[in-house]
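Budget justification aside, the reviewers requested a transparent look at the raw inputs and outputs of the sequence design task funded under Objective 1. We therefore reproduce one unedited record. The lines immediately below are the structure tokens for a 84-residue chain.
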């Protein structure tokens, strides 16, 4: 039984397309993360690095790593909408 059929080898070329564009962390967002969400520089830098490695928004990465909780995640999304 094949456990992961989506990883099976086939003769056709298959690619995974990701539409996420690397997010540029503005000075304002960095300040918000640091001052309002009380993240350390190391936590923010880890989030930036993982965001680029995984091609995912930093908000999701910070939550996924447990660096922010669900309420902080929602606050961050609200902040990003207001400052878009």
């Amino acid at each position: 039984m094949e456990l992961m059929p989506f990883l099976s080898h086939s003769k056709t070329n298959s690619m995974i397309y990701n539409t996420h564009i690397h997010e540029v962390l503005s000075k304002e967002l960095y300040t918000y993360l640091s001052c309002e969400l009380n993240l350390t520089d190391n936590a923010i830098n880890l989030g930036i690095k993982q965001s680029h490695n995984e091609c995912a928004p930093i908000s999701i990465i910070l939550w996924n790593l447990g660096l922010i909780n669900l309420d902080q995640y929602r606050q961050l999304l609200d902040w990003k909408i207001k400052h878009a």
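Residues 41-54 form the longest helix (14 residues). The chain has one domain: 24-82. Computational costs for records of this kind are itemized in the attached budget.
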